[in-house]
From TrEMBL:
The keyword Mitochondrion does not apply. Keywords: Endonuclease, Hydrolase, Nuclease, Nucleotidyltransferase, RNA-directed DNA polymerase, Transferase. Pfam families: Integrase_H2C2, RT_RNaseH, RVT_3. Residues 119-231 form the RNase H type-1 domain. It comes from Cephalotus follicularis (Albany pitcher plant). InterPro entries: Integrase_H2C2, RNaseH-like_sf, RNaseH_domain, RNaseH_sf, RT_RNaseH. GO terms for molecular function: nucleic acid binding; RNA-directed DNA polymerase activity; RNA-DNA hybrid ribonuclease activity. This is RVT_3 domain-containing protein. Residues 327-376 form the Integrase zinc-binding domain.
Length: 393
């Protein structure tokens, strides 16, 4: 319940303000004031002020109005001590408020993996289950020959990679391979070169999780993953089976010949923001530095790539000038391009989650330079100057 004070009401003394608040409450809650005894807890001497005959006419008028109600004034005690007492009483831990030891178990994701190797081929199956019961089933088909142990490792690494992409923090993986579980838990020592590579790859994935446990379970408790691994080596899937199939052309630990080419990038508009967000380097000019810090609050680096944050839209990825030119050409005249206008082109790029400061103007300039758009565009027949009628003599 509230009321705004207008004109002279805003100039009332403090005691009159409290009395006026009581009058407003009595008017708006008239039925309650008439039916019950009202206790007014206050630290102001309202009772003494209303009882004095030499007070202002306004207070005498309010005293008469309050006389028809049973209003009692009581001294309000200290609020801070009472609030502290309520806080201690409400937040004192009891037996029912103690942390449930199984709370961490409820947050665990469950991963079941199994590998298969036979004459017809090699494959693996994995089942990933969320704490709420949501389930993902994958079948991995290998395009290479793999032993049972290698297939088990590929299944475990693939499951952990999927969980990493889903931003899972706590996961429990189970397998019926004693060798894989022993190597992952540190009980066994890797002697073969391939097992050493698989173990090092597993340890690199392990750092992405807060909790990662690998357990050995019997084959009977891993039936679904075993069925998926056998399904991977089948010629075709059965009917009414919804399974995600993934083809793995080469082993995860296989080395690919890559030539590192370090092309120096010219400084662009993103360079100051990247220097500040990554290394904390600011421009020497204090004015420019202050502007940079203010604008950088909307940006964030994710995997060394700057993004623009937003509350109601997805994060937009920043593009360098070369990337921006390629994106404009691909969306405008690529496979799915239809030579749209500049405004539509810029909106399409935003829907694809790309951004740079001059996106809209660059799209308009790109349309003006497009040869096909200029040749096949509709020609406006309107004159450059408004026509003026001339009356013949």
């Amino acid at each position: 319940m509230s009321k705004a004070l207008h004109n002279a009401e805003g100039r009332y003394p403090e005691v009159e303000n409290f009395t006026y608040a009581l009058i407003i409450a009595a008017i708006k809650l008239r039925s309650y004031f008439q039916a019950h005894t009202i206790k007014n807890l206050t630290d102001k001497p309202l009772k003494q002020v209303l009882a004095k005959p030499d007070t202002s006419d306004r207070l005498i008028k309010w005293s008469v109005k309050l006389g028809e109600y049973d209003v009692k004034f009581e001294v309000r005690q200290a609020i801070k001590s009472q609030v502290l007492a309520y806080f201690v009483g409400d937040n004192t831990p009891t037996e029912c408020m103690e942390e449930d030891p199984s709370e961490n178990e409820r947050e665990l994701w469950k991963l079941s993996v199994d590998g298969s190797s036979c004459i017809t081929g090699s494959g693996a199956g994995l089942v990933l289950m969320s704490p709420s019961g949501w389930m993902l089933e994958y079948t991995l088909r290998f395009g290479f020959k793999a032993t049972n142990n290698k297939a088990e490792w590929e299944a475990l690494i693939a499951g952990l990679t999927i969980a990493k992409h889903l931003e899972v923090q706590k996961i429990e993986a189970s397998s019926d391979s004693q060798l894989v579980v022993g190597l992952a838990s540190g009980e066994y020592e890797a002697r073969e070169d391939s097992m050493t590579k698989y173990l090092s790859y597993f340890l690199s994935l392990k750092s992405a999780f807060e909790v990662l446990r690998v357990l050995k379970i019997p084959r009977a408790e891993n039936a679904r993953a075993y069925q998926l691994s056998k399904l991977a080596t089948a010629e075709e899937l059965g009917k009414n089976q919804i399974v995600l199939v993934y083809y793995l052309d080469r082993p995860t630990i296989s080395e690919v010949d890559v030539m590192d080419i370090d092309l120096p990038q010219e400084p662009n508009w993103m360079t100051p923001f990247i220097n500040w967000l990554r290394n904390g380097i600011l421009p020497e000019d204090p004015v420019e530095a202050r502007k940079l810090v203010y604008r950088a609050n909307r940006f964030q680096l994710r995997d060394v790539i700057p993004y623009k944050r937003s509350f109601s839209f997805p994060w937009l990825r920043f593009l360098t000038p070369l990337e921006a030119d390629y994106a404009l050409r691909e969306v405008h005249e690529g496979i799915c391009g239809n030579h749209t206008g500049g405004r539509t082109l810029s909106h399409k790029l935003l829907r694809q989650r790309y951004y740079w400061p001059t996106l809209h103007q660059d799209a308009i300039d790109f349309i003006r330079k497009c040869d096909k758009c200029q040749r096949d565009a509709n020609i406006s027949r309107r004159p450059s100057q408004p026509l003026t009628s001339i009356t013949a003599p």
